[in-house]
Amino acid sequence: MRKKDLEKIVIDYILENKENCYRLAYSYVKNVDDALDIVQESTYKAVTSLNSLKEPKYIKTWFYRIIVNTSLDFLRKQKKVDIVSEEILDVYSHGVDDVYENIDLQRELDNLPPNYRIIVILRYFEDLKIEEIADILKENTSTVKTRLYSALKKLRISMKD
């Protein structure tokens, strides 16, 4: 396939699925601006590394993997930054907090370990198959199934409380 054709396919896919891509990035960083930056950087990485997409039918898992890796890189870089307390941020903040339709579920999802949380998000919020999640996270499908089962069990227990 020609590079121009492949580039058009990738750009069209990203434009059609920009909300899903944003949600995936946001699930990692929990910040609107950072999530937008991650989607933008992921788009740049995708367009500049078209040769790594071997088969166009796997574009979804390929691009989601780029978003996940970019998000993880961002989080690693953020750990090096000094954290400011919530009280200090509140003094300088003029913004409005994000509103969730189900704040309890969001809170409990945030309490899950990151490797469990991302599987739940990809499976139920992004509607990906177990095999696609395994490809994105570079994990065995049985590992993904086990983590998903454990995460759902933890969510059930914590939501009962």
From TrEMBL:
SUPFAM superfamilies hit by this protein: Sigma2 domain of RNA polymerase sigma factors, Sigma3 and sigma4 domains of RNA polymerase sigma factors
GO biological process, one term: DNA-templated transcription initiation
Alphabetical list of Pfam families matching this protein: Sigma70_r2 (PF04542), Sigma70_r4_2 (PF08281)
Molecular-function GO terms, alphabetical: DNA binding; sigma factor activity
Source organism of this protein record: Gottschalkia purinilytica
Family named by the database record: Belongs to the sigma-70 factor family. ECF subfamily.
Domain RNA polymerase sigma factor 70 region 4 type: 105-155
UniProt entry tagged with the keyword Membrane: no
Keywords per UniProt: Sigma factor, Transcription, Transcription regulation
The RNA polymerase sigma-70 region domain, residue ranges: 20-80
Recorded name of the encoding gene: sigV
InterPro entries associated with the record: RNA_pol_sigma-70-like (IPR039425), RNA_pol_sigma-70_dom (IPR014284), RNA_pol_sigma70_r2 (IPR007627), RNA_pol_sigma70_r4_t2 (IPR013249), RNA_pol_sigma_r2 (IPR013325), RNA_pol_sigma_r3/r4-like (IPR013324), WH-like_DNA-bd_sf (IPR036388)
Classification of source organism: Bacteria, Bacillati, Bacillota, Tissierellia, Tissierellales
Name recorded for this polypeptide: RNA polymerase sigma factor SigV
